[in-house]
Write a structure and sequence with these properties.
Blueprint lengths: L2 H18 L5 E3 L9 E4 L6 E4 L2 E2 L7 H7 L5 H7 L2 E2 L3 E5 L2 E5 L5 H20 L5 E7 L5 E6 L5 E5 L6 E4 L2 H7 L1 E2 L9
Antiparallel strand pairs: 1-3, 2-3, 4-5, 6-7, 6-12, 7-8, 8-9, 9-10, 10-11
Helix pairs in contact: 1-5
């Protein structure tokens, strides 16, 4: 199985879980973005919109950033962010509640590239192995879910620290092993 096949299956499982429970997929609306995932306003809170995943027709391109940093990116990492426009996905991995980050639109992709550059430059300054973030742990705002750019290992790391807990040997394996979960936003009465 490839990372794109694993990610497609996760998206299907995620959307299916919400459909099964008759819950809308919700994301905080960014008014300055014309995101293709935005479907309709949510009646219960004007700051949120119902979303739907949309496959990217012009995949996010990591080549210029890789050239500028003189560092190729893990192909699974690039494929992960180049496949879907989507809201962040609430998942569990071995009792870790996580948020898998995704981009909403092209502008969000540009913001992601800038954040990746900043993260890599911080890692270089700290003389740590380069990692690439794909999510956040819900137990703490500064606990990142990352992919080691050299080995492909998925793990947890505190901001400014090296990975301290390995979750999977590869992003593909990790995506196959996570479990989608429902996330409550506001009052859905």
């Amino acid at each position: 199985m490839s990372i794109t096949t694993a990610l497609d299956a996760l998206i299907d499982r995620y959307v299916g879980l919400y459909a099964e429970h008759n819950k809308p997929l919700l994301v905080e609306r960014q008014d300055d973005w014309d995101a293709p995932i935005y479907r309709e306003p949510w009646d219960h809170d004007p700051d949120y919109v119902i979303w739907q995943p949309v496959q990217q027709t012009h995949p996010l391109n990591f080549k210029d950033l890789a050239a500028a940093l003189e560092m190729p990116f893990q192909s699974d990492f690039a494929d992960y962010y180049s496949r879907w426009f989507a809201g962040d996905l609430a998942v569990d991995w071995n009792h870790h509640p996580l948020q898998l980050l995704h981009i909403h639109c092209t502008e969000d992709g540009e913001r992601l590239l800038a954040n990746c550059a900043g993260h890599i430059l911080m890692k270089r300054r700290l003389k740590q192995p380069p990692t690439l973030f794909i999510g956040l742990a819900e137990e703490a705002d500064d606990l990142l879910l990352t992919v080691d750019n050299e080995t492909g290992v998925v793990g947890l790391e505190w901001v400014g620290q090296e990975q301290h807990e390995v979750l999977a040997d590869s992003l593909e394996t990790f995506i196959q092993e996570v479990t989608p979960r429902l996330q409550s936003i506001g009052e859905e009465s």
